[in-house]
Write a structure and sequence with these properties.
The chain is α/β, with parallel strands linked by helices and 471 residues long. It folds into 2 domains: 217 residues, ATPase, nucleotide binding domain (Nucleotidyltransferase, domain 5); 224 residues, 2-Layer Sandwich (Nucleotidyltransferase, domain 5), CATH 3.30.420.40. It is 37% helix and 21% strand. It has 17 helices and 19 strands. The chain has a 7-stranded mixed β-sheet, with helices on both faces. A hairpin with a 2-residue loop joins strand 2 and strand 3. Helix 8 packs across helix 15 and helix 11 packs across helix 13. The longest helix has 27 residues. The termini are far apart.
Length: 471
C-alpha cells in the first residue's frame, strides 16, 4: 500500500520539508519546501521566531496534495513554555543566547558533577535544558514542550514528548527514561512543567486536514542515527555532521562513571531503544560563521572557495579546540582563531585558506580524540565511521576524517535525518517492522561513498600536537 509522509527537518539556521512516498519496498523522496530559520531579538534575548516557522509549516503543507503522516525533528535542548490556555508565554530562547553563562557553576554547587551525570547521563553543557531553565521566569507557565513537540502541539494539540529529545535535557533518567524530579527540585524547577514521555514512532493526533501527526525521534541526531546503514560484521561508529558534530556509537546500556563524565561523553536515547553514547563537538558552524565573518568584512566566499583555499594552505601548522567557548557565539571567528593560536604558542593563521584549513584539521583531529575516549570507555575497537547528514557533501572533511582515524569513512546518506524521520513514521504507520528493517532499506537504495584512509607519520605527529593544545 502506498504511503506518503512528510519529514519536517529543522536546524537552528534553516528548515526543510521532505516528502517521501513508500511503495513496493522503495522509498522515494523530494524536498518540497525550504526556508531560513533566522533568530530574532526578543527583549534582549536571542530567540526562535516560532510564529514565522509555523507559517513555513503551513506553506509546506499547502504544497502537498495529500499525506498520511508528518513529523518534526529539530536540534536538542531548546523548548517553549505554555500557559494554561496552551499558548506560548514568550518566544522560545535560542541555546546560543548568553543568558546561561555561569549557570553550570551555580548548579554544581547544589549537585556534585558526578551525581548529576549519574542521574542524567548527559555531557554537562550550559546549553542543556536544565541550565536554561535556571534562568527562566516560569510564572504563568503550565507546561514545557521541546521544539519538535511545540510544532506537533501547533498542529494537533498534543502535549507530550518522546525519549530522544527529552534525553538532551539533563533532566531524564538514562536508564528508565523518566524525569529526575529530584534534580529539577534541587535546581528550583517545578517538575510539573515537564511533559509526559511517550514512545518514539507514535501517532499523536491529526491535523485539521486529517494528516496523522507522529512523534518519531524529535532530536535530529537520533533521526540520522536511525538511518545509519551499518552492515553485519562492522564495528561502527557514527558521526552526525552538520552545524554540530555528534560522534559516538550505540550501546545496550548507558555508561555513567566519573571517568565518562570527565571525558564529556553523553548518553542519549536512540529511537530503537539503544543508548547513543556520544560526544557533542562544534561542527560546520565554525565554517559557516567564519564565512559570515568574512562577508561582514566585505569579502564574499562560497563554501567551495573556502575549501579550495584550505586545500592549497600548508597542512598541520596550527590547531584550535573546536569546543573552546569563544567559538560558540556569533562574531569574528577568524580573529578568535588567531587569538587562540597566539595564546597557545602556535603559528598564527593569517590567510583565509590557513584559517579554514585550521578549522578542518582541528575538527578531524577532535573526531579522533573523541573516538579514542569512547573506545577507552567501551572497550570497542571501531573499524568504520558512518558519516551522516550535510557533512557528507564536504569531501575534504570526509577524507581528512578518514585519514585522521586511520579507518574508512562511509559517507551517506546526505539526507539521513529526513530519512530517519520518514522511516520512523513508516514504523508508526505499520509499514516497516523496526529500525533494523529501515536501515536495510537505506543500504539497498541510497548512494554511499567510502573514503579510504591515507594516514601518514606527519599526521600522527600533528595529532600529538593537537592533544597538547587541549591540555
Amino acid at each position: 500500500m502506498k504511503k506518503t509522509v512528510v519529514a519536517f527537518d529543522f536546524g537552528a539556521s534553516s528548515g526543510r520539508a521532505i516528502a517521501g512516498t513508500f511503495q513496493n519496498g522503495r522509498l522515494e523522496y523530494k524536498e518540497v519546501h525550504r526556508f531560513d530559520n533566522i533568530p530574532v531579538d526578543d527583549d534582549g534575548r536571542m530567540c526562535h521566531n516560532f510564529p514565522a516557522i509555523c507559517k513555513e509549516v503551513d506553506a509546506a503543507l499547502s504544497k502537498m496534495n495529500s499525506a498520511d503522516g508528518l513529523s518534526f525533528d529539530t536540534w536538542g535542548v531548546d523548548y517553549g513554555l505554555l500557559n494554561k490556555s496552551g499558548n506560548l508565554l514568550r518566544l522560545p530562547c535560542h541555546y546560543r543566547d548568553t543568558r546561561t553563562a555561569g549557570t553550570v557553576e551555580k548548579v554544581l554547587k547544589k549537585i556534585p558533577a558526578d551525581n548529576l551525570y549519574r542521574a542524567t547521563g548527559n555531557q554537562i553543557m550550559e546549553i542543556n535544558t536544565l541550565f536554561q531553565l535556571t534562568t527562566e521566569d516560569t510564572a504563568g507557565a503550565e507546561k514545557l514542550l521541546f521544539m519538535p513537540d511545540l510544532f506537533a502541539h501547533h498542529l494537533c494539540g498534543s502535549m507530550q514528548t518522546e525519549p530522544t529529545i527529552a534525553s538532551t535535557s539533563q533532566l531524564l533518567d538514562p536508564v528508565n527514561q523518566t524525569w529526575r524530579t529530584d534534580i529539577a527540585k534541587a535546581c528550583g524547577i517545578d517538575p510539573q512543567l515537564l511533559p509526559a514521555v511517550g514512545p518514539s514512532a507514535t501517532v499523536l493526533g491529526k491535523t485539521d486536514g486529517g494528516i496523522q501527526v507522529i512523534a518519531t525521534a524529535g532530536h535530529d541526531t537520533q533521526c540520522a542515527v536511525a538511518a545509519m546503514p551499518a552492515a553485519a560484521g562492522e564495528q561502527p561508529a557514527f558521526l552526525s555532521c552538520g552545524t554540530w558534530s555528534l560522534i559516538g556509537c550505540e550501546l545496550d546500556e548507558p555508561i555513567l562513571t566519573p571517568e565518562s563524565r570527565a571525558d564529556d561523553l553523553s548518553n542519549e536515547q536512540g529511537a530503537n531503544g539503544k543508548t547513543n553514547y556520544l560526544k557533542n563537538i562544534s561542527g560546520l558552524w565554525l565554517i559557516q560563521e567564519t564565512r559570515r565573518a568574512y562577508r561582514r568584512a566585505g569579502a564574499e566566499y562560497s563554501y567551495n572557495d573556502l575549501e579550495q583555499l584550505a586545500r592549497a594552505a600548508e597542512p598541520f601548522t596550527c590547531f584550535i579546540d573546536p569546543d573552546d567557548p569563544r567559538f560558540s557565539t556569533p562574531g569574528d571567528l577568524p580573529e578568535r582563531i588567531r587569538d587562540f593560536c597566539r595564546e597557545t604558542g602556535q603559528p598564527v593563521p593569517e590567510s583565509v585558506g590557513a584559517v579554514v584549513r585550521c578549522i578542518y584539521e582541528s575538527l578531524a583531529m577532535k573526531y579522533r580524540f573523541a573516538l579514542d575516549q569512547i573506545s577507552a570507555r567501551t572497550g570497542r575497537q571501531f573499524n568504520v565511521l558512518h558519516l551522516l547528514g550535510g557533512g557528507t557533501k564536504d569531501g575534504f572533511l570526509c577524507q581528512m576524517t578518514a585519514d585522521s582515524l586511520a579507518f574508512p569513512v562511509i559517507a551517506g546518506p546526505t539526507e539521513a535525518t529526513a530519512l530517519g524521520n520518514m522511516l520512523l513514521q513508516l514504523i508508526a504507520l505499520g509499514q516497516l517492522p523496526d529500525v533494523a528493517a529501515g536501515r536495510e532499506l537505506i543500504r539497498k537504495t541510497e548512494t554511499l561513498k567510502t573514503y579510504e584512509p591515507k594516514p601518514t607519520a606527519a599526521r600522527d605527529r600533528a595529532y600529538r600536537d593537537f592533544q597538547n593544545i587541549l591540555r
